[in-house]
Design brief:
With about 260 residues, this protein is an alpha/beta fold. Helix content is about 40%, strand content about 15%. Strand 1, helix 3 and strand 2 form a beta-alpha-beta unit.
Length: about 260
C-alpha cells in the first residue's frame, strides 16, 4: 500500500546536525511565560498519556509531564517501556494504559505522542475510539514516510521491512469525534515535515528541532491550545463561554470556525 506524501530525505534538505540545537529549545522553554503557565487554560484533572519516540523511554517525556501536571492535567506514562518493540506490541501496551487512565479519571483520554510515538498514539485511538478523545502529535509521520536515512534504517531494525504496511494501518483516518492536532517544524532534522500533518486534522507549525519538540515553548503553547480547545468542545454552555473568553488566543486558527458557533 502506498502512502500519501511519501518523500525522500534528499528532498527534505535539512541535515541531522540541526538536532544539536535541541538544548536551545529547552533553555528557551525555561525562559518562556508558557512554562510558568501564563496564558494557559488550566486543566481539570483530565487524563493525558505521553508516548515517547523511537528508541526513547517514558523518562524522555518528563519535562512535558511535569508541566501538564502543573497546568492541572493528570499525566500518565505510556507504559510501553522503551519504544523499541514492534508496533502491535507497543499499541497493545498503550491501549492498556489508556484503559487504566480512563477508569481512574472518568474522563475521555488525551494522548500526546512524539515522533514515532505519535504514530503509536493514533494506533491506540483507532482501537479505542470510545475512550480516547484527542491525539496530539509532535513531529510524527502521520501522512506518509520521509526521514533521515539513518532514522529509517533504525526504524526498520525495530519494525522490519513491513514498516510501510504498519504505517498505512495506523495512518488511517480516526473516528469522527476524536480530535487530532499535528504539531510540526520545518526545521526538523529527522522527519520530513511534509509528512507530519494531515488534511483532516489541525496543523500547527512551530520552529524547533525534532528532538526539541518535547521541550519547545511554541510546541507547549500549541499543546495548551489544543487541550483547551478540546475542553471547550466537551464543556457545557456556561463553561464553554468562560473557557473561550480566557483562552481563545491559544486555540489554533483552523479550529476557530468550530468554536465560533
Amino acid at each position: 500500500m502506498s502512502l500519501a506524501r511519501t518523500s525522500h530525505y534528499a528532498d527534505h534538505g535539512l541535515p541531522l546536525w540541526r538536532e544539536a540545537f535541541a538544548g536551545l529549545d529547552w533553555l528557551d522553554l525555561r525562559l518562556s511565560p508558557v512554562f510558568r503557565g501564563e496564558g494557559v487554560e488550566p486543566g481539570r484533572g483530565q487524563a493525558v498519556v505521553l508516548v515517547p519516540g523511537l528508541f526513547a523511554a517514558d523518562a524522555s517525556m518528563t519535562e512535558l509531564s511535569r508541566w501538564l501536571e502543573r497546568c492541572g492535567y493528570r499525566a500518565y506514562e505510556s507504559g510501553i517501556g522503551m519504544n523499541v518493540l514492534r508496533s502491535e506490541a507497543l499499541i497493545s501496551r498503550l491501549v492498556e494504559t489508556t484503559d487504566r487512565a480512563h477508569a481512574e479519571t472518568g474522563t475521555p483520554v488525551r494522548i500526546i505522542g512524539h515522533s514515532l510515538g505519535g504514530v503509536i498514539a493514533r494506533g491506540a485511538a483507532l482501537r479505542r475510539p470510545d475512550r480516547i478523545a484527542q491525539v496530539i502529535t509532535l513531529g510524527s509521520p502521520v501522512q506518509g514516510l520521509g526521514a533521515h536515512p539513518a532514522v529509517l534504517s533504525a526504524a526498520r531494525l525495530v519494525h522490519g521491512d513491513d514498516i510501510d504496511a504498519c504505517l498505512a494501518t495506523v495512518q488511517k483516518a480516526l473516528a469522527r469525534g476524536i480530535d487530532e492536532t499535528n504539531i510540526y517544524s520545518k526545521s526538523d532534522g529527522v522527519v520530513d515535515w511534509r509528512t507530519c500533518f494531515r488534511d483532516d486534522a489541525t496543523a500547527v507549525e512551530v520552529r524547533s528541532s525534532h528532538t526539541g519538540l518535547i521541550v519547545n515553548a511554541s510546541a507547549y503553547r500549541a499543546v495548551a491550545g489544543a487541550l483547551a480547545a478540546q475542553s471547550v468542545l466537551e464543556a457545557g454552555p456556561t463553561r464553554r463561554r468562560s473557557v473561550r473568553a480566557r483562552s481563545g488566543a491559544l486555540v489554533p486558527a483552523a479550529r476557530a470556525s468550530t468554536l465560533a458557533a
